[in-house]
Amino acid sequence: MSPGSYHIVCLPCILGNLTVPTAPQNLQTTVGNGLITLMWQAPINNGGSVITNYKIYRGTSAGAESYLLTIGNVLTYTNTNLTNGQSYYYKVSAVNGVGEGPLSSEVSATPATKPSIPQNLQTVIGNHTINLTWQAPSSNGGFSIINYRIYKGTFSGNESLLTTIGNVLTYSDTNLTNGRRYYYRISALNEIGEGNLSIEVHATPATKPHVPQNLLILVKNGKLILSWQPSDNGGDSISNYKIYRGTSSGNETYFVTISNLTRFTDTNLVNGQPYYYRISAVNALGEGPWSAEVVAMVYVSQNENQTFYLIIILLFGAVALGLSGYSLYLNRKVKSLELKLTKKSRRPLGKKALKPWEESTLDSVIMEKQLRKLSKSDAKYLFDSLMLRFNRLYKTGKWEAALVLLEQLSDLAEFLGDQKKVNDLALKYEEIQGKFQK
């Protein structure tokens, strides 16, 4: 070719059959918290020219993708700052020296994460039962909640998996031990996995208290003193006792509520009037059942020789005794005390005459005397007689009647000035009270 001549270049002759690449293959997605990662394979045919770029198209409805960005010759892209729970649609294309090839097939994905913690976990206790309630997590992570897991322990921070339940907001844990504390946490699950555990709560199953035991009536200075022993508190501390009183059997009505002391003194009494009592225990769950019925009558009589209180303790429907003008004296010719009439003949008490200390009718007869006119020798005989009876009751395990006699023996010991007897009787009283606790 001579100087000054021109070369004519035929581009089609140089490029030959070069063309744009085909579509990327096998476009796939994985989701995360606010993100979607795209992965694909290179086109089957690069068009005869090296792939230089990929273009990403995105939309929020099928078939409505628009250009998002261009990346280099890589086979993955992570799209961040997305809204969990929002579906996104994608296509990609490959670019070479000739140009951009066709779009890939469409894929869709929804970014998501594990749910947040369940809210407002609370407990409601019952008899051997704890009911759990809660609210759904503030965020389900982008996927619907499919399960909740319940964790339980018997001390704080040591819960282990108890059970997995469906998408419900309550669970009842049964067959528990009343009075024992249990700890709980829960978590929510979606398709991504299990979220974090909730805050810890604890509760102690309980029920209403059981019937108070061994209700007794004692007397001091003309006052009726109720005493009893607590029974099962139902798993929750007893806060109060309720006293019910009536003037006929089976007709007791509410009288007063006291603290959790196991003793009550009734001073609002009418002479010669029988009083019937029942009590119940109260805890945070409510009032328990009534105790068995007991009845007592205070009778004050005076004659020329002495003034004394005669108190008859009757149990379970024993007849009320009409006593008028009777006095007590000591019969040294018999081994035990007798209750005698000072009138010419015995007066019937209801349908029966008063028999010597009849246990089938009377639980015990309590005598509180103004002992100023009783001689020391008579008091000593009275003490010894009552002591014999106490020993028989003690040996046969009749603790209620034995406690009643101890009250009177203590009064007589004080009158006799025998402090050792007073102390011994006090110890014996505590011993018998302890037997009721077993």
CATH class of the largest domain: Mainly Beta
The CATH superfamily of the largest domain bears the name Immunoglobulins
Please name the CATH topology of the largest domain.
Immunoglobulin-like
The radius of gyration computed from the alpha-carbon positions, rounded to a whole number of angstroms, is: 47 Å
Biggest β-sheet, characterized?
7 strands, antiparallel
Question: DSSP helix count?
Answer: 4
How much β-strand is present in the residues?
35-45%
Domain count, please report it. Answer: 4
Unreliable stretches covering 5 or more consecutive residues: 302-373
* Terminal Cα span: 129 Å
Q: Given the C-alpha coordinates, what overall shape results? A: rod-shaped
- CATH architectural designation of the largest domain: Sandwich
**Helix percent band:** 10-25%
Account of the 3D structure:
The chain has 438 residues and is mainly beta. It folds into 4 domains: 13-109, Immunoglobulin-like; 119-203, Immunoglobulin-like (Sandwich); 213-371, Immunoglobulins (Immunoglobulin-like, Sandwich), CATH 2.60.40.10; 374-438. The chain is built from 4 helices and 24 strands. The strands form 6 sheets. Strands 17, 18, 20, 21, 22, 23 and 24 form a 7-stranded antiparallel β-sheet that branches. A 4-stranded antiparallel β-sheet has the order 4-3-6-7, with no helix packed on it. A 4-stranded antiparallel β-sheet has the order 11-10-13-14, with no helix packed on it. Helix 2 (376-395) packs antiparallel against helix 3. The chain starts with 10 loop residues before the first helix and ends with a helix. Residues 302-373 have low confidence and may be disordered.
